[in-house]
Design goal:
This protein has 18 helices and no strands. It is mainly α. Helix 3 runs parallel beside helix 5 and helix 11 runs antiparallel to helix 15. It is globular and about 65 Å long.
Length: 485
């Protein structure tokens, strides 16, 4: 197979490729949240049941989270550009199918295929960026742009969904993906050469089946806990199956000559800590976004479009934090940047936890939102850099897929656990407090827990990464393992 340490040559072409890859990632992350505001309109037009409507969201999460590991490794072995382009084409085709769907099953099937396309494109894109920008400074800046654009996708999905649903039709939240997909398919082959692992290898089929099955059952079980609770058979059985498949997967990987996930890949301390804290980070921020949007509409009485527009400063804060992050990583190192970003976000979440009915936007919601977003923007690029430490032309796709899988699972855990915690706490207060007060107390408790998760993450980073100078960005983003591995 070909050896390609850098898929393209020339600064201008690499920057153009980065822009294309980031816009595609923006589109993929956008579809995590873009349907949220549009769900009532979709239900009215297509006749979804309440239970069935949840699968408009869950089908995407399930395919995206479940297939990341398989397609991330496939990108390393079959060609990252090839897998990326196939994924984008699949995603665009599925978006068209969603936009013209006439029956509920058609929309759910389209969302599942969208998730599969995203699982192909996302890790391949991040792997290409890893190889396009091998130097410490340029990689830090590239990951800063990547992390910021991804964060904006999740935020602006709510705004775009509200605007398109209110001013046109919910169908346009899917159809707007088509121009981005077409441009990526036309431009990227002109900017990026093919790259794949240097050695001859084959996909570990037993490992792929077991690993993919474990992720699918894990994500499905976590999603079911949000609907049925943690003790219900509908959530317990998939989680048990996920554990069984995970144990089987690990047993197979220790015996096969060409494992899907080489176990020594997970032995790096930096990567292990980064992925572990990314789990906490994603759990906190997915839950925060959902809870805050719900709180704005049900307690503060914002309309869907107003609630979406209220999120715009959050996106601006992420951009500012992202701008500081690449510079902070180079000057202070990943460890201190992550600790600072996590603690800033925790402080912002505590501010948001105090927002109650009757509070104004500028004095109540906005301060906590801005502080939280600054910490988020500061943390995302640093997490990506740490999680991809030491990855090379052999395993860049795998490293990207592991990080993306952790983020998807963390998001599902956060939504399942923290949204349920808020709802149950509100229900317990229903007899002694007004509905608004009960909802506010549930919201406050859940956001306090999310802040605690980020404080825990900061503690893990500070403790487990230690004060070794090799954690500085100049070593952390190098393409060889640092001594912390």
């Amino acid at each position: 197979m070909t050896s390609t340490p850098t898929p393209v040559q020339g600064t201008s072409r690499r920057r153009a490729a980065l822009i294309v890859l980031c816009f595609v990632q923006f589109m993929l992350v956008l579809d995590d949240t873009v349907v949220s505001v549009a769900l009532p309109s979709i239900q009215g037009d297509l006749g979804f049941s309440t239970a069935g409507l949840a699968w408009v969201v869950n089908a995407y999460f399930l395919a995206f989270g479940g297939l990341l590991l398989l397609f991330g490794r496939a990108a390393d072995l079959l060609g990252r550009r090839r897998v990326f382009l196939v994924g984008v084409a699949l995603f665009g085709t599925a978006s068209l199918a969603c936009g013209i769907a006439q029956e509920p099953w058609q929309l759910v099937a389209g969302r599942f295929v969208q998730g599969a396309g995203a699982a192909m494109a996302s890790p391949a894109a991040l792997a290409l960026i890893t190889l396009l920008f091998p130097g410490p400074e340029e990689r830090a800046k590239a990951f800063g742009v990547w992390g910021g654009i991804a964060g904006l996708g999740g935020t602006l999905g709510l705004v775009i969904s509200g605007a398109l649903t209110g001013l046109a039709s919910w169908r346009w939240i899917f159809l707007i993906n088509l121009p981005v997909a077409v441009l990526a398919l036309v431009l990227l082959p002109r900017l990026v050469a093919e790259s794949r692992a240097h050695r001859q290898a084959h996909i570990d089929v037993p490992g792929a089946v077991l690993g993919t099955g474990a992720l699918i059952f894990l994500v499905y079980g976590l999603l079911q806990t949000g609907e049925s609770g943690w003790g219900h058979a509908a959530s317990v059985l998939p989680l048990v199956l996920a554990v069984v498949l995970t144990v089987s997967f690990l047993a197979v990987e220790t015996r096969t000559a060409e494992p899907l996930v080489p176990l020594n890949f997970l032995s790096s301390r930096i990567r292990a800590v980064a992925n572990g804290t990314a789990l906490l980070f994603s759990a906190a921020f997915y839950a925060m976004a959902f809870l805050l949007m719900l709180h704005l509409q049900t307690v503060l009485d914002y309309g869907p479009l107003t609630a979406g527009v209220a999120y715009l400063p959050y996106g601006a804060g992420i951009l500012v934090g992202m701008w500081f992050s690449s510079r902070a990583v180079l000057r202070l190192g990943v460890r201190l940047t992550l600790v600072t970003g996590f603690l800033i976000s925790a402080g912002g979440l505590l501010l948001l936890s105090g927002v109650a009915a009757g509070d104004g936007y500028a004095s109540g919601v906005l301060p906590g939102m801005l502080v939280t977003s600054l910490g988020c923007g500061l943390s995302l690029p640093a997490l990506t850099i740490a999680a991809l430490t030491g990855t090379t032309g052999e395993d860049a796709g795998l490293g990207s897929a592991v990080l993306s899988s952790v983020q998807q699972v963390g998001g599902a855990v956060g939504l399942a656990a923290l949204v349920t915690l808020a709802a149950r706490h509100s229900d317990n207060l229903a007899d002694t407090a007004t509905p608004q007060r009960a909802a506010t107390e549930g919201f406050s408790l859940a956001l306090t827990v999310t802040a605690a998760l980020l404080v825990l993450g900061a503690g893990l980073v500070a403790t487990l990464l230690g004060k070794n100078k090799n954690q500085h960005a100049g070593h952390t983003v190098a393409t060889r393992e640092t001594s912390a591995g």
